[in-house]
Design goal:
3 domains, Aldehyde Oxidoreductase, domain 3, Transferase, Pyrimidine Nucleoside Phosphorylase, Chain A, domain 3, Pyrimidine Nucleoside Phosphorylase, Chain A, domain 2, binds uracil, 4-stranded mixed β-sheet, alpha/beta, 13 strands
Length: 435
């Protein structure tokens, strides 16, 4: 029996807590014996004072133990997943999940909704009428046997401690802590019952980690703690100084993904990041030259197999095939307007954070928890950083439903694409990998 106030004081004074002490706090919080204000104080003390690697690993394990670990032992295929720390226009999961399945992997992918200015895979999939993102841990193995990949949302059975603590962190300014982010993400991934995970740690003005240094610290923490829990793990630090692909917005991103999966209109950056992440996982299990592997993936896309696999995954999750067709053909689009260049020059910078915010202001994301969203609004970019443009060239098409909301984002978006004459230096798309 511990005194919660004493434990909060200990953390406040920079003392490391033991596994038993952390267990007492977290179990007590889930059971309702530790109150929100006590957990908030503890989390804030932890954000300021930090947690040791050992404490982070303990937190992760205790959080996993708060719920069920999914049992996928009936599936003989290697179980893998990918997790992104959040970006703008990041639709990698929608492409990579069917690719994993076509490559013969089993991929239980627990995904989230939009967080802050970033988009969420579950919101994107819910733009398809009928898509059911909830799956019980009992039904998941048979769904995986049928589709190879299943994208689903976190339920109350899996890591309830994270669900409760994350909601509290969201409203107490305690999200931004590498140890807490690590415990939150790794506990959920471990509970999926997988063998290996690759993290896509986004870095740049559209990511939570703004600098390569911060991103490296998070990547190392995610990989080390995952390995401690018995997962094979790797991370790539990838650029988020412009949206990934050419669309931002839920149905628009599903549309772009469908075209990509058919081997048409494959954005170069989206393809490079997706295949690099897939290769990180593949090379944990097989020795295959990267070039040979990439050619094999290309063939999977061009044969239409990944596209057919995606449709199967959606229909198996209750998605309506006609709704999917409507999205593929852009029949959801209501009103649109183009933003054009007012000068000659080169695209020097993109304010990716503002573009993510613009989607929220348009109604395509949430201003507060529980808000309903319009899945059909968003943007299509016609340019990338480094492109040359002339006066009058289209920069961006805005897809909107509400005139007042459109008016509120036009100047934000005009300012978010910076054009100039100075020398342009390209950022690496993939900064580095962490093993
Ligand atoms: N995503 C999560 O799942 N948890 C965090 O703490 C931050 C981002």
């Amino acid at each position: 029996m511990y005194d919660p106030v004493e434990l909060i004081r200990k953390k406040r004074d920079g003392v490391f807590l033991t596994r038993q002490e952390l267990k007492y706090l977290i179990r007590g919080y889930v059971a309702g014996d530790i109150r929100d204000e006590q957990m908030s104080a503890f989390l804030m003390a932890g954000v300021i004072r930090g947690f040791s690697v050992k404490e982070t690993a303990c937190l992760t394990e205790i959080m996993i133990e708060s719920g069920k670990e999914i049992d996928l032992s009936s599936i003989s295929r290697t179980k893998v997943d990918k997790h992104s720390t959040g970006g703008v226009g990041d639709k990698v999961s929608l492409i990579l999940a069917p690719l994993f399945a076509e490559l013969g992997y089993c991929n239980p992918m627990m995904a989230g909704r939009g967080l802050g200015h970033t988009g969420g895979t579950i919101d994107k999939l819910e733009s398809i009428r009928g898509y059911q993102c909830e799956v019980s841990s009992r039904d998941l193995p048979s769904r995986l046997q049928r589709s190879g990949s299943v994208i689903f949302s976190q339920s109350d059975e899996i890591v309830p401690a994270d669900k409760k603590m994350y909601e509290l962190r969201d409203v107490t300014g305690t999200v931004e802590s590498i140890p807490l982010i690590t415990a939150s993400i790794v506990s959920k991934k471990k509970a999926e019952g997988i063998d290996a995970i690759v993290y896509d740690v986004k870095c740049g003005n559209g990511a939570f980690m703004k600098t390569p240094r911060e991103a490296l610290a998070l990547a190392e923490s995610l990989v080390r703690v995952s390995q401690k829990t018995g997962l094979k793990a790797r991370a790539l630090i990838t650029d988020m100084n412009q949206p990934l692909g050419y669309t931002i917005g839920n149905a628009l991103e599903v549309m772009e993904s469908l075209l990509f999966l058919r081997g048409e209109r494959m954005d170069r950056h989206l393809k490079e990041v997706t295949l690099a992440l897939t290769y990180e996982i593949h090379s944990l299990f097989y020795e295959e030259e990267k070039e040979v592997f990439i050619n094999r993936c290309d063939k999977i896309f061009r044969s239409g197999k990944a596209y057919e696999r995606f449709k199967k995954m959606i229909i198996d999750a209750g998605g309506d095939s006609e709704a999917l067709e409507e999205i593929e053909e852009g029949r959801f689009i209501e009103k649109m307007i183009q933003i054009r260049s007012k000068q000659d020059g080169r695209i020097l910078e993109m304010d990716t954070f503002s573009m993510g915010k613009a989607l929220i202001y348009l109604g395509g994301g949430r201003l507060k928890k529980g808000d309903s969203i319009n899945h059909h609004v968003g943007m299509e970019l016609h340019v990338k950083r480094g492109d040359s443009v002339r006066v009058g060239d289209p920069l961006l098409t805005l897809f909107y439903a509400d005139e007042a909301k459109k008016a509120s984002v036009m100047s934000l978006l005009e300012k978010s694409i910076m054009i100039g004459e100075r020398e342009y230096e390209e950022n690496p798309l993939i900064y580095r990998s962490v093993h």
